[in-house]
Amino acid sequence: MNSFGRKFRVSIFGESHGTLVGVTIDGVPAGIPLSAADLQADLDRRKAGAKGTTPRKEADEPHIVSGLFDGHTTGSPLTVVFQNTNTRSGDYSNLVTQPRPGHADFVAREKWHGYNDYRGGGHFSGRITLGIVAAGAIAKKVLGDTVRIESRIEEIGGHTDPAAIQQAIQEAIDSQDSLGGIISCTASGIPVGWGEPFFDSVESVLSHALFSIPAVKGVEFGAGFAAARMRGSQHNDPIVAPDGTTGTNNAGGINGGITNGNPIQFRIAVKPTSSIATPQQTYNFADGKVEPLVVRGRHDACIALRVPVIVEAMTALVLCDLGMVACDRPASPVAER
Asked: Residue 203, SS3?
């Protein structure tokens, strides 16, 4: 439901226009130096402010309320909360009876029989990822400096050139529309042997987490969908060193669901933001017919612009959990054959 992980377990809570949002992390080892300031760099990367992001500005100041004492983690559940202060809930009143196309308004209304908090998207809002980014920053500290996770924007609205991207964003703003994008991520320094075959494969667990990010509609590892157009002789990665280093990385650093020592590489597809000011046709439950809907409020024209740091955070959470699970297995020499 709202929790993820086995040994490094993350639970998110809050709503977009509620009192606060936050995260509780169970499984953080004791003795790790930590302060709220350690989270700020990643939290700032997630903030709005760039062209194409929402005008809603929040302080996003983290408050660590449990699991920390004298500047070190205690080993008990660690909770980080963020106050919501800049809300305009009245902008969402018309969505109670007329749900936004492409958004979770309708399914939330049906699933929870109208008791859901609809303001700002409630628990479905991208604001909930604030806790994920905080947890990711902590997971990076647990993983240590040997593991490096880097994510970047590859494409926005079908464009890869920075100047063309900026022009496309401005055109979307001017036309009161939105854009999607593609984000790539590389995680290096991962040892051989993390993950399991089948249901707990590294791809399975990572995909589970990545699809939990609002607006993510696709994930591919290594060569991804391009592998369907390749031959085995092209796709196979030749092993060129005894540590498992390969000449190519079409597998994305994973074989049989298990890390092979090469960088984990994947890409995600982010859909265009559902909330657009352009009038749309959608069903009005009050009138019992399809009518025009004008979405009010403050929304990102391109949410993909703020996604890279969230992808890094989700990746860190998964790798931290996989690493802890792997450490529980006793080491044994490779049997002679």
From this structure: helix
- pTM over cut 0.85: yes
Alpha-carbon distance of 18 to 334, in angstroms, equals 54
| Long-range CB contacts for residues 85-93, cutoff 8 Å, separation at least 24 | 85/58, 85/59, 86/56, 86/57, 86/58, 87/16, 87/17, 87/119, 87/120, 88/297, 88/298, 89/17, 89/119, 89/120, 91/296, 91/297, 91/298, 92/17, 92/118, 92/119, 92/120, 92/296, 92/297
CB 5 within 8 A of CB 209: no
pLDDT of res. 330: 55
End-to-end Cα spacing for the chain: 45
∠ CA 9-269-14, nearest 5°, is 40
- Residue 151, beta-bridge partner list: 185
**94 pLDDT more than 90:** no
Spatial contact of 135 and 26, defined as CB atoms under 8 Å apart: no
Model confidence pLDDT, tens digit, residues 15-54 = 988 899 999 999 999 999 999 999 999 999 998 888 888 7
> Mean pLDDT, to the nearest integer, of 112-140?
92
pLDDT over 70 (residue 105): yes
Q: How far apart are CA 140 and CA 84, in angstroms?
A: 26
Residues in CB range of 253: below 8 A, 6 or more apart: 187, 190, 222, 259, 260, 261, 262, 263, 264, 265
Under 8 Å between Cβ of 6 and 23: no
